[in-house]
Amino acid sequence: MNSDIERVLYSEEFLHDTVKRLGEQITEDYKGKKLLLLGILKGSVVFLTDLMRCIDLPCEIDFMAVSTYGNGVKSSGTVRIIKDLDRDIRDCDVLIVEDILDSGMTLSYLMELLYARDPGSIKICTLFDKPDRRKVDVFADYSGLCVPDEFIVGYGLDYAEKYRNLPYVGILKREIYETKE
Ligand code: IMP
Ligand code: MG
């Protein structure tokens, strides 16, 4: 285990089972629709690449990049679009794929922005949810796991761009970020 990790929360196998369950549910719900998986860079990359292989339907993928955190562990509250979609979404059933729903600021901003583009439908799939920290009302249509109010890393989630490549998800030792804040 990486020595910056306090405790492993979810093993690779456990994450795989969770993603498989979400994929099966999405496969049921999106039959006959024009599914576009919209990954929010960079945190959702690992989740999205696993999830798409658990969806037994034709689908497309695209990405948007946003920034709310900088190098901190708390959202700055200001959402910046760094990369927008390449395409029109008017004919698509958009499923936003996010790593973690925390304050909800990022997804509420994105939902409003994308809704105005008049997609066929728009829903949210998040792997992790920290409901205790919600500041704005956002509802995830698909949610993998509820997590405690701790800063977690791995399986795509980072702290200051590190730890995304850990195959498991763990709680980051407080000393790693408290000394830098
Ligand atoms: P929100 O706008 O506060 O909901 O923040 C969502 C974004 O914050 C996620 O997409 C993550 O990039 C980041 N984030 C929130 N909590 C964590 C965490 O525990 N670990 C890593 N990133 C996090
Ligand atoms: Mg993210």
β-strand number: 9
Q: What is the H/E order?
A: EHEHEEEHEEEEH
Q: Beta-strand percentage? A: 25-35%
From the structure provided, what is the oligomeric state, counting identical versus distinct chains?
Answer: single chain
The small-molecule ligands in this entry are: inosinic acid, magnesium ion
| Poorly predicted ranges | none
Helix content: 10-25%
Q: In angstroms, what separates the terminal alpha carbons?
A: 25 Å
Describe this structure as you would to a colleague.
With 181 residues, this protein is an alpha/beta fold. 23% of the residues lie in helices and 30% in strands. It has 4 helices and 9 strands, in the order βαβαβββαββββα. It has helices spanning 12-29, 45-52, 105-115, 174-178, and strands spanning 5-10, 35-41, 59-67, 80-83, 93-101, 121-129, 142-146, 152-153, 169-172. The strands form 2 sheets. The chain has a 6-stranded mixed beta sheet, sandwiched between helices. Helix 1 crosses helix 2 (45-52). The longest helix is centred in the N-terminal third of the chain and has 18 residues, at 12-29. It is globular and about 50 Å long. The relative contact order is 0.21. The site of magnesium ion has 3 residues, from loops.
